[in-house]
Specification:
With 403 residues, the chain is an alpha/beta fold. The protein folds into two domains: 210 residues, Rossmann fold; 186 residues, Dehydroquinate synthase-like - alpha domain (Dehydroquinate synthase-like, alpha domain). Helices cover 45% and strands 15% of the residues. Helix 13 crosses helix 14.
């Protein structure tokens, strides 16, 4: 089969897949303009040859919050397609074509990685929305990893006081965490997610086939979040996930479905993070500190999951000390997370800076740093007050255990 025929076949398969998605998940065809078909169709296969969502892959409707009570469901006449994977495979697209009406969506590309998760990038998205004449009844299609979902959601939720958005996460981390639950934000002054809003996507669509485009380190990073979800769920999921290697997730996508359903269950009980949803922060209070430290001090920063793996070591230790977690189990679980840590890590000389960064955590209250810890598998405890002295000892013990 020559290249031209193969490309035509690929395009046809992708168009058929998108039609299935539209028919299954979006409102009836007579309820919105026909141009949404063209917008969705073009956006989903604009990523190039290596983004190949075939009809035979597994697809899931993962999380659909009824946001029409908050923001009217969008007609999606135009789409903003933010994309962060495999830049050299992007097609040659002339934006003048969009202005002349030859295409029905505008494509905007943001740089991958946590360094892009800032106000400057967000302003760039707003500028495009304004310059291209987007309206409140238009929609954003966020195709990319966690940064794309966080930033695209925030841009949509704030432009014209709220427009609709759809997540199509392409990294494992985004599939099981960032694209689920309605948290959108940017980093500010070197601190994680200091500015943001709660706003739920109209729909999140998960395609495990995207994982084939990721390097091993990215799969490993997302797997850490799955392990954390398993700890919050109970012994069965934890025992099964902790016994496999992270690469196996790519061949057994039901693990992805099981893990993200854990997050959905917590979000449904507490959508705006006032209580039990904070359990999902297990590993993240310390983990965000390591991530912020890395962004400030390392030329190649840790990935989010790598920082959370470090944070899990700290918080499993705190759980033994403060909430009665069995010490033997904490050691076993720590050994599971230890496999996903990417060196180098902070040294004892960095503890002072780590403690200072922890002081900016959003959950802090009454001069204490607040943690979500574990009493036993499936039984988290939220809003545990931890003194700076106790946290300093926990950081010290974790760092020494890795040297």
């Amino acid at each position: 089969m020559d290249k031209k025929v193969r490309l035509k076949k690929d395009m046809k398969e992708k168009q058929e897949l998108v039609n299935i998605i539209l028919d299954r998940y979006l409102p009836r065809k007579d309820e919105y303009p026909k141009t949404i078909h063209k917008a969705m169709r073009y956006s989903l296969f604009a990523g190039g040859k290596r983004i190949r969502p075939y009809l035979t892959m597994s697809t899931y409707e993962i999380y659909r919050k009824e946001v029409d009570k908050i923001v009217p469901v969008a007609a999606a006449i135009e789409m903003l397609h933010t994309y962060s994977l495999i830049h050299d495979d992007l097609p040659d697209i002339d934006n003048d074509d969009y202005r002349r009406g030859k295409k029905s969506c505008h494509i905007h590309i943001i740089k991958e990685g946590e360094d892009s998760k800032n106000l400057s990038t967000l302003e760039g998205i707003w500028n495009i929305l304004s310059a291209e004449g987007f309206r409140r009844d238009d929609a954003l299609l966020n195709l990319g990893g966690g940064v794309v979902c966080d930033m695209g959601g925030l841009a949509a939720a704030t432009f014209h006081r709220g427009m609709q958005f759809i997540h199509v996460p392409t990294s494992l981390l985004a599939m099981v965490d960032a694209a689920i639950g309605g948290k959108n934000g940017v980093n500010f002054r070197g601190l994680k997610n200091q500015i943001g809003v709660f706003a739920f996507p109209y729909i999140t669509l998960i395609y495990p086939v995207f994982l084939k485009t990721l390097p091993n380190r990215q799969i490993q990073s997302g797997f850490v979040e799955m392990l954390k979800h398993a700890l919050l769920n109970g012994d069965d999921l934890w025992n099964r996930l902790s016994a496999i290697e992270h690469e196996e997730v790519m061949h057994h996508s039901h693990y992805i479905s099981e893990a993200l359903k854990v997050k959905v269950s917590y979000v449904d009980k507490d959508p705006f993070d006032h209580g039990i949803r904070q359990a999902l922060n297990l590993g993240h209070t310390a983990g965000h500190v390591f991530e912020e430290w890395s962004l400030l001090n390392q030329s190649e920063p840790m990935l989010h999951g790598e920082a959370i793996a470090l944070g899990m070591l700290v918080e499993l230790g705190l759980s033994v000390k403060l909430t009665g977690l069995d010490e033997n189990f904490a050691l076993l679980a720590s050994n599971v997370f230890r496999k996903h840590i990417h060196l180098p890590v902070p040294t004892l000389q960095d503890i002072g800076q780590l403690i200072d960064l922890a002081g900016f955590d959003k959950k802090n209250k009454d001069h204490f740093i607040r943690f979500s810890l574990l009493q036993k598998v499936g039984k988290p405890v939220v809003q545990v007050a931890v003194s700076r002295e106790t946290l300093s000892h926990a950081f010290r013990n974790t760092i020494l255990s890795l040297t």
